[in-house]
Amino acid sequence: MQVAVQQKAGLRVDRRDMVIYRAPRPWMQDLWLWILLIGPLVAPLFMAIGWPVLQPFANGIYLLGETVCPKVGFHFMFLSYPVAVCSSCWSAVFGLWTVRLLYGRSGEGFGPFERLRLETFWTRWQQTPVEMKLGVLLVGFMPWALDVMLTDTGILYTPHAYMMFAGYAGGIVAAMLMFPARAEMRARMERQSRG
Predict the structure, then answer these.
(1) What is d(CA 62, CA 76) in angstroms, rounded to the nearest whole number?
(2) Cα–Cα distance between 17 and 35 in angstroms, integer?
(3) Rounded to the nearest 10 degrees, how much is the dihedral formed by the CA atoms of 81, 99, 104, 131?
(4) How far apart are CA 183 and CA 26, in angstroms?
(5) Ramachandran quadrant class, 165 (left: phi over 0; alpha: psi -120 to 50; beta: rest)
(6) CB of 84 within 8 A of CB of 60?
(7) Are 187 and 23 in contact (CB under 8 A)?
(8) 6-37 as b/e: b if 16+ CB within 10 A
(9) How far apart are CA 127 and CA 75, in angstroms?
(10) Does the pLDDT value for residue 4 go beyond 50?
């Protein structure tokens, strides 16, 4: 907008002089996403290497996986050992990553996804009433919750493909709430720190 005002006033503006503000990269958020993505593969890798010094670390990772995963017995195999979480939980991480790449720092997209111009979508999503957002969250998590309930009661054991779909959908809707809320909280904190 300032560029347009300067051009109307007859001033010559060089693109190199323009400063575009970008929110700082959420490195801590990305670190946790990488840990969630790579972590479940580290335990079977440590087991496959077979070094006794790595065994306690692998056991700790499996313990964490058993603590957070609702379907402990339904794992993919990696290097002849089970992944630390079920296919639903691991697919949820891919859902988180999908929204992370589409959302970027503050709705502009990340890397090649900036070209999609999703700012309007994310702005409208942030203005959506909380009840609607919670409804989307409920619909997105329903297949996962139903899958866990049916498995726990012994009524139905779903294949990995369905578990992956349910986890991916749950990860997407969870991230659609988390990432915009985090960006909004970061912006609010920056405004407060400025005065």
Answers:
(1) 13
(2) 39
(3) -140
(4) 9
(5) alpha
(6) no
(7) yes
(8) eeeeeeeeeeeeeeeeeeeebeebeeebeebe
(9) 39
(10) no
Which amino acid is residue 60, in one-letter code?
G
Residues 16-29 pLDDT 10s: 555 454 556 677 88
**Measured distance between the N- and C-terminal CA atoms of the chain, rounded to whole angstroms:** 24
DSSP designation for 81: E
Q: pTM higher than 0.90, yes or no?
A: no
Beta bridge partners, 82, equal: 77
Residues in CB range of 24: below 8 A, 6 or more apart: 105, 186
Q: Is the pLDDT of residue 166 over 60?
A: yes
Residue 118 class from Cβ within 10 Å (0-12 exposed, 13-18 middle, 19+ buried)?
middle
The token duo for 173 is 């809707």
For the four alpha carbons of 161, 163, 165 and 168, in that order, the dihedral sign comes to: negative
Q: Which sign does the torsion angle of CA 11, 15, 19, 23 carry? A: positive
Confidence (pLDDT) at 52? 93
> Using N-to-C axis directions, what is the helix angle for 130-153 and 160-194, rounded to 10°?
150
